[in-house]
Amino acid sequence: MSSKKTMTLNLTDSEMAALESLSAEKDVSKTAILRQALRLYQVISVRLQLGEKLFFEDAVSKDKKELVVL
Amino acid sequence: MTRQKVLLRHVESGGVVDADLIDRIDLVIAKRAEDGWQTYLATARAEALAAKRPFPDLEHDHWEWERKVSITHRLLPYPTLGIECEGQVQGLMLLETDGHFARIATQAGSPVVYVNLLATAPWNLPAVTDPPRYRGVGTVLLAAATTLSVDLGFKGRLGLHSLPRSEDWYERLGLTNLGSDSNKQNLKYYELTPDQAQNLIR
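The joint structure predicted for all components is written out below.
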């Protein structure tokens, strides 16, 4: 497997609280949550660059709302 | 792309040989696999026809590795792994690291690494080549997927849908059979728990 590099990450209290909450909810480490966030951000970025759009669909009404990603 | 040494068993000599486990295969390797495997299969089919021998209907000779790798090779959520030995691609695997969650009650909802495709070269399949050239290709690849799951923080959890001819093999490796999945062409769904993962990668 690929070797890893270490970095320091500065988070606000609320960001850290969100990270800890997701880590507990998903039963994975905080590092795993951030690595997953990067994977998802990258694949969304690539697809948006290809001209695709990202939507959330309401389960009942089927209304779609576009998610705008920076 | 990184490489690490693994061992395969050379069936005819009974010895073990060095092979490379490749993390993130590129288009060159995918094309080499596709060309080599299809050429071998075409020859083996022709020989079987000439000898009036039946030839197995393979379940995984249409997976278009070159096209799939061209789509996924730069995307982090779709790792690909391969094994090369003596200049030939012996097996390939495409994984998905996100969007798949465990179904076994004790781990339901926890993320799993999903094995999307796993294939060994046709000369390693006993149904095509008797005796096969190498053994252990699939096991090394599945163990690598398990190691990746541990590395990602998923504790070794894996999920996959098995082609019918591979069901016994997954069960021998210790995966739990959760039955037919009507959302996936009724293929059987298998899952690996952290405890089972330890047995697979030790």
